[in-house]
Design a protein that fits this description.
Chain lengths: 134, 214
């Protein structure tokens, strides 16, 4: 039974050399993490100093009067809202203001910042591209 | 790279083009015994029926036109579209033992055999006789099955969930959001991201910026 025959039958011999080498494989002295982000700095005296700014904190607004619950009732009919597209967002958020200004005559091509146009993402805390938040 | 590709192909080729489907689901042991990888069987010729032309659904009442239980009417329990099969409740049965152990001969039960769509005919609800059925559109634009002999509409059976929940009779629990609250539109379109809106609402100011990494 040759190699090709075995492959055709769906049986392949040997270890999978292309599998990911995780911390579950290797000897017991082999130390490897799973990609957690550090929350501090290791000093020269091998002491770990946690930095408060690196520890993630949840920022939750006040949920007073918030009526949505974890689950949805079975009686709810299927919703008919169209998906949010960039064109839809533009037309709902910005287009009317632009139209009003154009009709008044105060629309200026050079001053699109007042409608929310951002020429660069430099200097912003939450950049859209490259996206620096999750 | 080639090896993982081959392994993934072996995993994906669980349903090759000439896979012979049976009454068991393909991931069960019975189906794996019938179709081990690499087994090639004679091609099964199945009449191609388009998705739109399929007329028999689970829960329909149909009459058997040929076979052991010819002339009997029954409810459809299961439909197999890939082989044009239909299993009726308690009809076209053969008998077998189930749960056999070394010393116990097993329970003798009746198990249904599948019937082809060609040997089945939908039953007109008004006179309860078998008819040919066609798909037509109503004046509202709804697609319905119409019996050719009498011209009456054969209604589609009500879909029953496997967990037995009837959505209209559901009583909301403490963690359920009611339908009115779910469908309330509270979204105001804005060009801010969620994080920026939350920061604005809570009055958080963050003048620091990340250092540029290259």
């Amino acid at each position: 039974m040759g190699v090709l025959n075995a492959l055709r039958r769906g049986i392949v011999r040997g270890a999978d050399r292309m599998a990911e080498f995780t911390s579950k494989r290797g000897s017991r002295t082999h130390y490897k993490g799973r990609g957690a982000q550090p929350t501090g700095v290791l000093t020269s005296s091998r002491k770990f100093v946690p930095i408060q700014a690196m520890i993630p904190q949840f920022v939750v607004p006040d949920l007073e009067g918030f009526r949505l619950k974890p689950y949805v009732s079975y009686r709810t009919p299927v919703g008919t809202e169209p998906a949010v597209t960039p064109e839809g967002l533009f037309s709902e958020a910005v287009a009317q203001q632009i139209q009003k200004d154009f009709e008044e005559g105060s629309f200026d091509k050079e001053q699109l910042e007042k409608y929310g146009f951002e020429p660069t993402q430099e200097g912003k805390l939450f950049k859209l591209y490259p996206k620096n938040f999750i | 790279m080639r090896l993982t590709a081959i392994l993934s192909m072996a995993a994906k080729a669980a349903f090759p083009k000439d896979y012979r489907y049976g009454t068991s689901r393909p991931w069960t042991i019975a189906a794996k015994r019938l179709n081990p990888p690499g087994k090639k069987r004679r091609k099964m010729f199945i009449e191609p029926i388009a998705y739109e032309d399929w007329s028999v659904f689970k829960g329909d009442t149909v009459e058997i036109l040929s076979g052991k239980d010819k002339g009997k009417q029954g409810k459809v329990a299961q439909v197999f579209r890939h082989r044009n099969w239909v299993i009726l409740d308690g009809l076209n049965t053969h008998f077998r033992y189930i749960g056999k152990t070394a010393d116990y001969r097993g329970t003798y039960i009746a198990s249904e055999a599948p019937l082809l769509i060609r040997d089945i005919s939908l039953v007109d609800p008004t006179d309860r006789k078998p008819t040919e059925v066609e798909w037509r559109f109503t004046e509202e634009g709804e697609k319905v099955r119409v019996s050719l002999r009498t011209g009456r509409i054969v209604p589609k059976p009500v879909f029953q969930r496997r967990d037995g929940i009837v959505p209209q009779q559901w009583k909301d629990g403490p963690k359920d959001t009611s339908p009115e609250e779910t469908l309330e539109k509270t979204y105001t379109p804005s060009l801010k991201t969620l994080e920026e809106e939350v920061m604005e609402k809570l009055g958080i100011e963050e003048p620091r910026r990340n250092r540029k990494t290259y």
